[in-house]
Amino acid sequence: MEQQLKELQTEALAKVESAEDLKQLNDIRVAYLGKKGPITEVLKGMGKLSPEERPKMGALANEVRAAVSSAIETKQAELEQKAIEEQLAKETVDVTLPGRQVEMGNAHPLTKVIEEIEDLFIAMGYSIAEGPEVETDYYNFEALNLPKGHPARDMQDSFYITEELLLRTHTSPVQARTMEKYKGQGPVKIICPGKVYRRDNDDATHSHQFTQIEGLVVDENISMSDLKGTLEVFAKKLFGEDREIRLRPSFFPFTEPSVEVDVSCMCKGEGCRICKHTGWIEVLGAGMVHPNVLEMAGFDSKKYTGFAFGMGPDRIAMLKYGIDDIRHFYTDDVRFLRQFAEHE
């Protein structure tokens, strides 16, 4: 039995040394050290030995197992290192090759327009105010002079979550919330950019989700002429110094009087497809803040007056860049977005 164990050790060590890969080495491990291996088979015959010989053979068997196991571990480390070196050799990078140019992205046209409008009004002394997109019925309607059952609510077909919660239909709730924070003390001078939601059938000019920027000024002695002057500066800076604006009477529950604001078309009155041959393009709605809205926000309407305006950056971007379908803004088509890199 002693001779058998020594021969098995010599045989196993020779095979370990000649192993060429990790799979072959593992097969050797299983063959010699496994439960059905020859070393185990030899040990099964220890019952036939005398009590004096058994400890000696047991110790020898353990020495053989340890020698084979140690040889396998050493060979395994050697083969693993060899495999790493071969892999590194295959994946060698030629650092002398010219680098690949990284394609840079560019700002989304909506982002560009929103930031341009924000910068314009910040330069005029406005601050940016934000609010939640999931809004309460009170701030979205009631605080803006739209009590429950008011027919003008139908103009803004809404996504209701509960009877008192909905996705905001405009950014006007931010104005109401901001005025409350001022606790009846002016001046207030803010713009409110953000996403809004209305139940609408998506087509080339309508979307159930779009963006708005609304502005609000509240102070003593604010008049309609202040509103008109502000919007003239806005139109000339955004569309060109040669542009003019006109105000047309309109109705909004939260302003009185209310106006629709048009900007002169780039065709200079000659008439084109963009302005539908009228020479004017509607860009926003505005008006003097309704006294009820001021009072609900805690302002004394006899002391304070204000104006508000609201515009859609989607529509302005379409006019500015000649985009014919609002859905292009939301499809994430890089072919569409790449067109605006040249405007950076």
What features would you describe in this structure?
By secondary structure, the chain is α+β, with helices and mostly antiparallel strands. The chain folds into 2 domains: 2-89; 109-343, 2-Layer Sandwich (BirA Bifunctional Protein, domain 2). The chain contains 11 helices and 10 strands. The strands form 2 sheets. The protein has a 7-stranded mixed β-sheet with strand order 1-5-6-10-9-8-7, sandwiched between helices. A 3-stranded antiparallel β-sheet has the order 2-4-3. Helix 1 packs parallel to helix 4 (53-90), helix 2 (22-33) runs antiparallel to helix 4 (53-90) and helix 5 crosses helix 10. The mean pLDDT is 86.
CATH fold-level topology of the largest domain = BirA Bifunctional Protein, domain 2
- Shape category: elongated
Number of separate domains: 2
How does the helix and strand content classify structurally? Answer: alpha+beta
Could you tell me the radius of gyration in angstroms? 40 Å
The major β-sheet equals:
7 strands, mixed
Order of helices and strands: HHHHHEEHEEHEEHEEEHEHH
Distance between termini?
87 Å
GO molecular function: ATP binding; catalytic activity, acting on a protein; magnesium ion binding; phenylalanine-tRNA ligase activity; transferase activity; tRNA binding
Main location: cytoplasm
Domain Aminoacyl-transfer RNA synthetases class-II family profile: 111-339
Enzyme class: ligase
